Amino acid sequence: MASIDIQNIKKAYGHVQVLHDVDLKIKDGEFVVLVGPSGCGKSTLLRMIAGLEEVTGGEIRIAGNRVNELHPKDRDIAMVFQSYALYPHMNVAGNMSYSLRLRKTAKEKIASAVANAASKLGLDPLLERRPKALSGGQRQRVAMGRAIVRQPKAFLFDEPLSNLDARLREQMRAEIKKLHADLKATSIYVTHDQIEAMTLADRIVAMHGGVVQQVGSPLELYDRPANLFVAGFIGSPGMNFLDATCETSGVRLKDGTLIPLSAPLALSSGAKVTLGIRPEHVVMSDQGGMRAKVELVEPTGFGIILHLSLHGLPFKVFTLDREALTAGPEVGVSFPAQHLHLFDSEGNRAG
Ligand SMILES: Nc1ncnc2c1ncn2[C@@H]1O[C@H](COP(=O)(O)OP(=O)(O)OP(=O)(O)O)[C@@H](O)[C@H]1O
Ligand SMILES: [Mg+2]
Q1: Is 240-343 in CATH node 2.40.50.140?
Q2: In angstroms, what is the span from residue 41 Cα to ligand 1's centroid?
Q3: For a pocket test of ligand 1, which of 34, 43, 211 has the largest count of ligand atoms closer than 8 A to its C-beta?
Q4: Which ligand 1 atom is at minimum distance from the Cα of 37?
Q5: Distance between CA atoms of 244 and 250, rounded to whole angstroms?
Q6: Nearest CA residue ID for atom 24, ligand 1
Q7: C-alpha 185, offset from chain centre
Q8: Fewest C-beta atoms under 10 Å: which of 37, 74, 187, 199?
Q9: Residue ranges of the ABC transporter domain (predicted)?
Q10: SS (H, E, C) the chain
Q11: Ramachandran region of residue 259, left (φ > 0), alpha (ψ -120 to 50) or beta?
C-alpha cells in the first residue's frame, strides 16, 4: 500500500479550468472520501490519479514517486466504478483473475488470490456464473473482488454503490468498512451519499467548483464547517441560514431579535454575518421563541421534518418528538448558543 500526494493539481479542458490547485496528502492506509456537487471535479481528480486523464499542472506522487508520466497499468492502482465494467463473456472467477492472468501470474497464485477475495466478499458459490446471471449487488462485489486480487497500492472508488437499492447500499457500505479494516488499503472514495461519506471516511474532502473547500474528519466538517458551502453541503436536511448583524452582546436578526452568543466574536459591531443552525439543533416550544409558521410536516419514520416559514423565509426543524406531528399553525423556535455557526460576509467561518 502507499501514500498519495497531490500537489497543486490543475486540470483544464481547453479554456475551461475544472480543477484549481488541488493539494491533498493521503496517508498510507487512509480512507478519504471526496464529496461535492455534480461537476465539481471529483471523477476528474480520481481519473488523473489513475492515469486515465492527463494532468494539466502540478504533481501526483504515489508512494513518494512522481507518476504524472506513468501509464495507468504501471501505477498499480485499482479503480471501481459505478458501472461495474465486468467482462460479460467471462464468469466471476474469470473476471476476478483477468488482470493477474494478463500479468502471467502463476496459476496457483491466481487461484489462491481469487479464493481469498471470493471468501472475503461472499462470492464462493457464484464463481462459475456469468455477470448477466448476477444481481447488481453481486456484480459490484465482483468488481471489488477484481480490484482486491491485484493487491494494488491504492483503491479508487467512483460512486460504487449508487446503482444499488437503499437496503443493499447499506449492507455494502458496512462491508466496505469491514473490508477496509481488514485490508487497510489506501482508498479514495467518491460519493453523493452523506451517510456513506460520514460513516466510511477517515477524512472527508469537500470540493466545490474544482476547489477544495475543507479537509477534515467527518465530525470536524459537521461540527465546524469552514465556510458556508461546507455548512450547507454536509448534513441532511441542510443547515438553516439567517442574515444577521453583529452587536457587542450577540447578533441581531432582521426582525430585531437579539441572539446571544456563547463566546465573543472577533468581528466588529455592525458587521454583516450569516447565522447557521442545523435543523436538529433548533429548540421548539408552544409558547415563546421566535414565532414560525408551519408550512409542511414530513414524518420520516425515524423523526419528523417540519418545514417552517420564519420571518417569511423557509426554515427547517428536525425532531424526534412525535408531538410535532400535530403541531399547530405556529410554533416557537429558539437557537441554543452552543449550536450556532457564524460566517462572515465572505462566507468564512467566524469564531
Ligand atoms: N472530456 C471533457 N471535456 C470537457 N469537459 C469535461 C470533460 N470531462 C469532464 N469535463 C467537465 O469537467 C467538470 C468536472 O467533471 P467531473 O466528471 O470530474 O465531475 P464530478 O464531480 O465527478 O461530477 P458528478 O458528481 O456528476 O459525477 C464538469 O464541468 C465536466 O463537464
Ligand atoms: Mg463523477
Answers
A1: yes
A2: 6
A3: 43
A4: 25
A5: 10
A6: 38
A7: 18
A8: 74
A9: 4-234
A10: CCCEEEEEEEEEECCEEEEEEEEEEECCCCEEEEECCCCCCHHHHHHHHHCCCCCCEEEEEECCEECCCCCHHHCCEEEEECCCCCCCCCCHHHHHHHHHHHCCCCHHHHHHHHHHHHHHHCCHHHCCCCHHHCCHHHHHHHHHHHHHHCCCCEEEEECCCCCCCHHHHHHHHHHHHHHHHHHCCEEEEECCCHHHHHHHCCEEEEEECCEEEEEECHHHHHHCCCEHHHHHHCCCCCCEEEEEEEECCEEEECCCCEEECCCCCCCCCCCEEEEEECHHHCEEECCCCEEEEEEEEEECCCCEEEEEEECCEEEEEEECCHHHHHCCCEEEEECCHHHCEEECCCCEECC
A11: beta
Which atom of ligand 1 is nearest the CA belonging to 45? 18
Please check whether residue 263 is in contact with residue 351, taking contact to mean a CB–CB distance below 8 angstroms. Answer: yes
Contact 131, 95 (CB under 8 A): yes
pTM above 0.70, yes or no: yes
Q: Does any ligand 1 atom lie closer than 6 A to the CB of residue 11?
A: no
Q: Which regions of the chain carry the CATH code 2.40.50.140?
A: 240-343
Calpha distance 207→34 (Å, rounded): 7
The three cell numbers of residue 320 are 424526534
Query: Per-residue pLDDT tens for 148-175?
Result: 898 899 999 999 888 888 888 888 899 8
User: Which tens digits make up the pLDDT trace of 34-93?
Assistant: 999 999 999 999 999 999 999 999 999 999 999 999 999 899 999 988 888 899 999 999
